[in-house]
Amino acid sequence: MPYLVAMAEQLRRVLSIQSHVVSGYVGNKSASFPLQVLGFEIDAVNSVQFSNHTGYGYWKGQVLNDTELTDLVEGLQHNKLDTYSHLLTGYIGSASFLSSVVGVVQRLRQVNPGLIYVCDPVLGDNGCMYVPKELLPIYRDRIIPMANIITPNQFEAELLTGEKIKNVEDARRCVNLLHAKGCETVVLSSTDLGSSDHLLALASSVVGKKMFATIRIPRFPHNFTGTGDLFASLLLAWMSITESDLKVSLEKTIATMQSVLKKTLEYGRSQTPEGSEISKAHLELRLIQSKREIEDPKPTIEAEVNE
C-alpha cells in the first residue's frame, strides 16, 4: 500500500512553461502555489522573467529563447528527471519558442504516453492580440491538436477557429471545431455572453460521456492580473483529482477564483484611502492568504450541464 501511495504521488508532477515575475502573481507565480497546495509537484520553466507584470507600465527583465528551453529539457532528460503527469503552458512570446514547445510535448510523451497537456493559448483579449501574429497558426495547427485541455478566452477561441461568437450556439460551434482539431476538453474561461453582473464561462468535453456546461460567474468591479494563469492551474488540478469530472472541476475552480478575488479586493480596499483608485500593487492576487480556500473550495455556483 505505501508503494501504491508513493506511485500516485509521483504521478502528480507538472512541468509548467510560462512567464514569471519577481514581485506579484502572474504566470508561474500564479500557478505554482495552488498546484502545490493541491498536492502537485511543479517544475517551472520561465518563458520570461520580469521584475513585475507589464500592467505597471514599466518593467525590466529577460526573455528565454528556444535554444535555452531545449537546453533545460535536455538537462532534465539526461538525468531522467523528465517523467511528468502534466504539462502546462501559458504566456509564450515568440514563434520559435512556441515551436520548441511542440518538441517538448513529443519528448515528454515518449517518457509518459499518458501525459496530460493543459494549454492556455495566450494570444490576446478584448479584440487585441498582444503576442506576435506568427504564433496564431502554430497554436491552431500544431499545439491545439496535441493538447488535452485548452482554456482560451472568447477572443482567443475566435482567433483559433476563425468564427465569431455572438451567442451560446456560436460558442458551441466554435468549441466543436476545436474538438475536431483533436483537443478533448475545451473551456472558454470568459466570454461576453453574460450580463453586466455576470460573466459566462463555457466548457465542453468529449472524454467518455460527452458534456457541454455553462456557468455564470459574478463580476467584480475591478480587473485583476494573473487570473487566467490561476484558472488554468486550478482546472488542471481538479480535472486530475476528480478523474476528469468536468462539472465538479469547473465548479471548484470557479469557487476558488471567487474566493481569491474577493479576498484580493477586500485587501486592496483596506489599503486605499476612500475615493482613491486601488493601486496595481494592492490588487496582486492574495494567494498565500487564500490557502484554505484553494485547498478546500466550497462551490456555491452550479454549472448547468447539457449533453
What secondary-structure arrangement, pairings included, does this model have?
Layout: H1 2-10, E1 13-21, H2 28-37, E2 41-50, E3 61-63, H3 66-78, E4 86-89, H4 95-111, E5 116-119, E6 124-125, E7 128-129, H5 135-143, E8 149-150, H6 154-161, H7 168-180, E9 185-191, E10 198-205, E11 211-218, H8 227-241, H9 246-270, H10 291-295, E12 304-306
Parallel strand pairs: 1-2, 1-4, 4-5, 5-8, 8-9
Antiparallel strand pairs: 2-3, 6-7, 9-10, 10-11, 11-12
Helix pairs in contact: 2-8, 3-4, 4-5, 6-7, 8-9
Walk me through this protein's architecture:
The structure is a single chain. The chain is of the alpha/beta class. The protein has a single domain (10-306), classed as UDP-N-acetylmuramoyl-L-alanine:D-glutamate ligase. 40% of the residues lie in helices and 20% in strands. The strands form two sheets. The chain has a ten-stranded mixed β-sheet, sandwiched between helices. The chain has a two-stranded antiparallel sheet with strand order 6-7. Helix 2 (28-37) links the parallel strand 1 and strand 2 (41-50). The longest helix is centred in the C-terminal third of the chain and has 25 residues, at 246-270. Mean pLDDT is 94; it is low at 1-8.
What would the keywords be for this entry?
UDP-N-acetylmuramoyl-L-alanine:D-glutamate ligase; alpha/beta; globular; two-stranded antiparallel sheet; 10 helices; disordered N terminus; ten-stranded mixed β-sheet; 20% strand; 307 residues
Which architecture would the CATH scheme give at its second level? Answer: 3-Layer(aba) Sandwich
Shape from CA axes? globular
State the CATH class: Alpha Beta
How do the strands of the widest beta sheet line up side by side? Answer: 3-2-1-4-5-8-9-10-11-12
Rounded Rg: 19 Å
Number of strands: 12
Largest sheet: 10 strands, mixed
The chain-level structural class is alpha/beta
Q: From N to C, what is the helix and strand string?
A: HEHEEHEHEEEHEHHEEEHHHE
Helical amount: 40-55%
What is the CATH H-level superfamily?
Ribokinase
CATH overall fold name: UDP-N-acetylmuramoyl-L-alanine:D-glutamate ligase
Number of DSSP helical runs: 10
State the low-pLDDT regions, or none: 1-8
